[in-house]
Amino acid sequence: MRDMEEGLVHEVEHVVPEVIVADRQAIVCQGLGSLVAQIASVRLGAFATDKASLRKALAARRGPAIVVLGVRLADADLARVLEMLRRDFPPVLVVVVAEESEFAFIRTAIKAGVNAVCMMGQVLTSLPRILGHLVEGHSILPIEVLKRLSGEQNDALTRREHEILGLLVDGLTNFQISARLGLSENTVKYYLKAIYQKLEVNSRGGAIAKYVAGTY
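Above: the chain's sequence. Below: its structure in token form.
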């Protein structure tokens, strides 16, 4: 009996983290997944292209999990996916994979407390190293990201402004946004005016284009 108990303890201590790859494009999931499958310290789990499939994959996991996450899923941008993960799956570790041109999303990820950032241009060499560090209990950020963050004074947008922009992208009107967030329409207009000024645009379309491209 004692030998069986010791065997169970040994098995629990050596559970290999499951890596779930999530991105709006299935081909990106497959490419990252093929890389993850070669890393001995983790095991490849399911792919997810939207919030529902990501939630399903996380709910089905049997042990620790790491989410390798692109900046957008089919039905949500990075900020909203991270909010869902923090709220519903707090123990899960998150690695955000992004292009250098998507630095606004990298900044959002770091402010949200992700465990690591991997630049897409360096993914072949960086992702295995990052996952190894996470398994050992360490977070990791690229030096170039830290240097750029240290040179910035403030994030362009507040959390509320991010939220409103996300609803704009979803096609909601000012009235619908006010109802969704419990704000007056005048307050929504005030936020939109501030957003336009910060993004240096003068229309909803211009703001949406910059937000979707991550160039703000």
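The chain has two domains: 2-150, 159-213.
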